[in-house]
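Suppose you are handed a protein chain with no further information: no name, no annotation, nothing but its sequence. What can you learn? This example shows the usual starting point.
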Amino acid sequence: MTTGKLFVVSAPSGAGKTTLLKRVMSALPGLVFSISHTTREPRQGEQDGIDYHFVSQAQFLDMIDRELFLEYAEVHDNFYGTSKDAIGMQLEDGLDVVLDIDVQGAAILRKKGQPEAAHIFISPPNLNELERRLRGRGSESEESIQLRLMNAATEIKSAAEYDYLIINDNVDEAANLLTAIILAERARAHRMPSGKKISGIVI
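A reasonable first move is to predict its three-dimensional structure. Written in structure tokens, the prediction is:
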């Protein structure tokens, strides 16, 4: 059985991470999202069990007590966490798993070293462009925008800790680079672009 690869992806809010991931994941077979648990309220269009597992703070704290999370963190006054069992089952099924988490959660996983992962940071070209994107959403209050910009300035400093850095200035180029990273990691593990194990070759 081929074991999948974990891809840890982090980015400041508004850097275009969701757009890039959706584009790449629709084009590459064998690549799936890890669905995180969160205590924040769903945004318009988000669905429970698809975008996130939306739970109450009491439920989340109970899961912490039962040590059910691979990692968890508090971000923007809400909790986010990754289920150990969910990740493990996907990897054992031979799927490559994209774990979309903040820099705090990524740092926890790097410190643990297990499961092995490729860490990718997606950055906006600059904070001015990030502010323009956040305002363009039309769903953020001024207080929220300023908080996200302040956090982004701190998060970008963590980019050096990641294996790969993608500057999302042009979405097509950034998507191509993200695709190339995933394919290179598959080749390094002697797997086909589809994710299947290479066999029948004497090396």
